[in-house]
Amino acid sequence: MKQIKLAVIPGDGVGVEIMPYATKVLDAVADLHGGLKFEHEWYPYSCEYYLEHGEMMPRDGLDQLSQHDAVFLGAVGNPKLVADHISLWGLLINIRRGFKQTLNIRHAKQLRGIQPMVTNPGGFDLIVVRENSEGEYSEVGGRIHSGEDEVVVQNAVFTRKATERAMRYAFDLAKTRKGHVTSATKSNGIVFSMPFWDEVFEQVGQDYQDIEKRTAHIDALSAFLVSKPAEFDVIVASNLFGDILTDISAAVMGSIGIGPAANLNVDGTHPSMFEPVHGSAPDIVGRGIANPIGQIWTGKMMLDHFGESELADQLLTIVEDVTESGMKTPDVGGNATTGEVSEEIISRIKQ
Amino acid sequence: MKQIKLAVIPGDGVGVEIMPYATKVLDAVADLHGGLKFEHEWYPYSCEYYLEHGEMMPRDGLDQLSQHDAVFLGAVGNPKLVADHISLWGLLINIRRGFKQTLNIRHAKQLRGIQPMVTNPGGFDLIVVRENSEGEYSEVGGRIHSGEDEVVVQNAVFTRKATERAMRYAFDLAKTRKGHVTSATKSNGIVFSMPFWDEVFEQVGQDYQDIEKRTAHIDALSAFLVSKPAEFDVIVASNLFGDILTDISAAVMGSIGIGPAANLNVDGTHPSMFEPVHGSAPDIVGRGIANPIGQIWTGKMMLDHFGESELADQLLTIVEDVTESGMKTPDVGGNATTGEVSEEIISRIKQ
Ligand SMILES: CC(C)[C@H](C(=O)O)[C@@H](O)C(=O)O
Ligand SMILES: CC(C)[C@H](C(=O)O)[C@@H](O)C(=O)O
Fold first, then answer.
1. Residue A298: partners with Cβ closer than 8 Å, 6 or more residues away
2. NCBIfam families given for it (chains A, B) (predicted)?
């Protein structure tokens, strides 16, 4: 029996609504296999937890989570916490960095039964490899002077090590896919970090002679995801650019509620974390209509991570069978609830 | 007779192809007025110029340009210059900064006869006010160490003065439009500059009690421009975020080739510059199919700038009459040339 120990963190908002269903779906998939079992331990770390305890998780939170094989996270965020970087750096980014989850992999593709939001989808299927540990998200910077003379400096920090790692991952991935990688840059406007990014892309690319290298500035690339998403396959991007591109690609698919993501620890020292692209969606909380597909597809990426690609593919096929059948939440044009969609997926798994 | 002295810089690529037509359109519009005349002086500053002279413009280039009331620019960029920040900082950004064009205003709306690239356009009509003088586009930063230990730091620099200026402009604009402003932030991930940005937005907003204030993170906002562009009216954004949002909004309209832009000098000390959102488009150069609408609409923004709003509106109406008639370049689904579309616009102006 292969046991996978999951730390389940529903988090806030729709995360709490979706997670019970998503874990049930995963259990059903594991049963298909026979020899696979998920053990879940639930953790209440969230903005709600913060409001009660004054911190997003206890001081030994990372230690506790590290007892598990992976973290399965819902969403974090609460409109009551206006300075939301405090909650996010306390939990989400804390785990990403504490567990050296240096890559954030996000998949987007046209799903059967879900109307893309663009007029020229062309059957697109792309993966964004996002550098997840540094770059524009840095705690380096500060303010000087006050009043009308105030100046604020924010440093983006790029290391060769982390940049190379993201690029190698992207090139290796491209070998198993269509054989080309697009690098998201902005070296025409951002003149230190981005020319360096381009340089590393070119250097690493020399080890991958068979892979076609393309570069596009983030402004143009964002527009291309709208106008011709099918031209892209593997995209490698910095922390901020990857963040932006993957929200766009999720919307292009039809709803931000369906984008999956994996925060990968690639050196094997810590658990990886699986959390969808969408946030806690306070606007629809309590109505039972949150789309569970982002979280379920994220679970599919977790199955891939643990070497269960066959099960993973089976799960995504069933998800598409369900969307194709018309059983969908309102964000993608249906009128089903979170529970109805999830139960339908479970019942098809069990068939 | 009101004379407007234009420094015309066709630049590179499609800029060179479009500019003769765009200036002809402007002349035709001026004739409608009777009392208005554009005087143009043409400048060859471009990447081609660089390849010949080793600089993008002569040392007294800014002095020469400053003799004019405005700069009308086509596009800059040449694939032969791989490190394109050299050419762009030498010309485009040099002019923006040298002439204190601290705001970049970009309009996007659903045009009659042009199919938007998103399935839910809803008749959107929005303006992005982009801070144009600082932020993420800074020459502050550098590298340390080498080889696998290399670290690159890029500073984004935000001043209260420039941030406030962009916001006041946005709020003032909102008064003449739908009464709400959306601020593009990323304070949950970028923890110095963006919380400051939010703070200034809130502070400046207090002087505009009647204007509704909204904020959205750049990732979500980029996705919203795809999923529900009609919910936005005035958006205020940093240099980089404004750059990204306006390429997206141009694509959403139907083609990056139609987005207009105005680089405004708001203290009246230097000429403003009018240049479309699109670049030099090396992929289609020489085929005569570049869309002239971006440049012509940019001319319309120039007319607004010089107080000729009535003429400006008339011009945009005629542009839409032409697109509605089906006379369009291939990027927006037609088969007309740059010249045919432009001549059709001119002939309707003269009617
Ligand atoms: C060419 C580049 C430097 C420029 C920018 O990013 O400002 C362009 O994308 C624009 O939007 O005008
Ligand atoms: C919540 C925020 C800090 C986070 C990010 O920007 O990384 C989110 O947008 C994401 O993409 O996971």
1. A22, A72, A260, A261, A262, A274, A275, A276
2. PRK08194.1, TTC
Shared domain for A239 and A181, answered yes or no, is: yes
Helix, coil or strand: residue B129: strand
Residue B306 in contact with partner chain A when CB distance is under 8 A: no
CB of A310 sitting under 6 A from ligand 1 = no
Quote the pTM value. Answer: 0.97
Q: How far does residue B327's CA lie from ligand 2's centre (Å)?
A: 44
Ligand nearest to the CA of B243: 1
- Interval A132-186: pLDDT, tens: 999 999 999 999 999 999 999 999 999 999 999 999 999 999 999 999 999 999 9
Residue with tokens 């601020």: B183
Is the Cβ atom of A12 under 6 angstroms away from ligand 2? no
Quick: pLDDT tens for A45-61.
999 999 999 999 999 99
B264, B245: one domain: no
> How many structural domains compose chain A?
2
Q: For residue B111, tell me if it sits in a domain.
A: no
Range of the domain at B195: 116-253
Domain containing residue A227: CATH number: 3.40.718.10
Task: Say whether residue A244 is in contact with chain B using an 8 A CB cutoff.
Answer: yes
The pLDDT score that the predictor gives to residue A340 is: 98
The sheet with strand B261-264 has its strands ordered as B36-42, B2-11, B70-75, B272-274, B261-264, B103-109, B125-131, B234-237, B180-185, B212-217
Task: Decide if A250 contacts A118 (C-beta within 8 A).
Answer: no
Does residue A189 have its Cβ closer than 6 Å to ligand 1?
A: yes
Q: Is residue A17 part of a domain?
A: yes
| A219–B contact, CB cutoff 8 A | yes
CA of B307 to the centre of ligand 1 (A): 26
Per-residue pLDDT tens over the stretch B103-124 = 999 999 999 999 999 999 999 9
Ligand 2 pocket residue status of A134, Cβ below 6 Å = no
Distance A76 CA to ligand 2 centre (A): 9
